[in-house]
Amino acid sequence: MAEQASRWPKQGPASYFPSIEAKYGRSIAEWQQVIADCGLQKHMEIVAHLKSVHGMGHGHANALVGWTLAGNVAGP
Whose C-alpha in 23, 37, 60, 67 is 20 to 30 A from the C-alpha of 44? Predict the structure, then answer.
């Protein structure tokens, strides 16, 4: 995943993505699929889901959900 780390910006929510991918073992595209499949719509509900079901830290979950709900899509 070291190759993918260079494709994310150094600032903003996506700056968390290299550490999210490394720590939780899934690509951002996979996490976006988890978000799409969770059946929840509200930002903080999805953050709570990622934290409780997947053990994700608040900052990581918040960045990922915010970026996703803003309409951004990660490539595979």
Answer: 23
